[in-house]
Design brief:
This protein is α+β, with helices and mostly antiparallel strands. It has a single domain, classed as 60s Ribosomal Protein L30, Chain: A, CATH 3.30.1330.50. 29% of the residues lie in helices and 28% in strands. The protein contains five helices and six strands; from the N terminus they run E-E-E-H-H-H-E-H-E-H-E. The chain has helices at residues 46-59, 64-67, 80-93, 116-127, 142-145; strands at 5-16, 25-27, 30-32, 97-106, 131-136, 149-160. Strands 1-6-4-5 form a four-stranded mixed sheet. Helix 1 packs parallel to helix 3 (80-93) and helix 3 (80-93) packs parallel to helix 4 (116-127). The longest helix is centred in the N-terminal third of the chain and has 14 residues, at 46-59. It binds magnesium ion. The site of magnesium ion (MG) has 5 residues, from strand 1 and helix 1.
């Protein structure tokens, strides 16, 4: 029996677009100039939140709402990249190394491709492992298809010990 363990975690997040024209859109730690912002207690970075939840889930550490409740003024307007970095620290403190994280972002707007490399670089640096971001349109279906918000699914793999 080796002392090697591998765990997978899944994360999901969704935020609706804000009616506040001054709200900036932040995804994967990157500001999308000229795009509608998302509503939320923090900066509403749905990708960073989904990645954080995937990592917490993989490590059996609960979810983002437990660790960073939206009733806590500490995290009002928070930079979600800082929150994600905090999650990475919690996961590593349990002896886990992060293998990789893969994200699927679903929205009709804005176009993600122009910011994809920047998002992947920011997230990968924060997580200390490869983070990939894929964009998908909702084909006009449902709330996402009606351009009411942006959703993100993320999957994370973490490993512990030696083979
Ligand atoms: Mg969120």
């Amino acid at each position: 029996m080796s002392g090697f363990a591998v765990r997978v975690g899944q994360g999901f997040d969704v935020h609706r677009f804000s009616d506040d024209p001054n709200r900036r859109l932040i995804l994967g730690g990157v500001a999308f100039d000229g795009a509608r912002g998302l509503d939320g207690h923090s900066d509403a970075d749905a990708i960073a939140h989904a990645v954080a939840d995937a990592l917490l889930g993989a490590a059996g550490l609960g979810d983002i709402g437990q660790h960073y409740p939206d009733t806590d003024p500490t995290w009002k307007g928070a930079d979600s990249i800082a929150l994600l970095a905090d999650v990475v620290g919690k996961v590593r403190a349990q002896g886990w190394e992060i293998g990789n994280v893969d994200c699927s972002v679903v929205c009709e707007e804005p176009k993600l491709a122009p910011h994809r490399d920047a998002m992947q670089a920011k997230l990968s640096t924060t997580v200390g492992a490869p983070v990939t971001v894929k964009g998908r349109r909702a084909e006009g279906l449902g709330a996402l298809g009606r351009r009411e918000g942006i959703a993100c699914w993320a999957v994370a793999v973490i490993v512990k010990g030696a083979l």
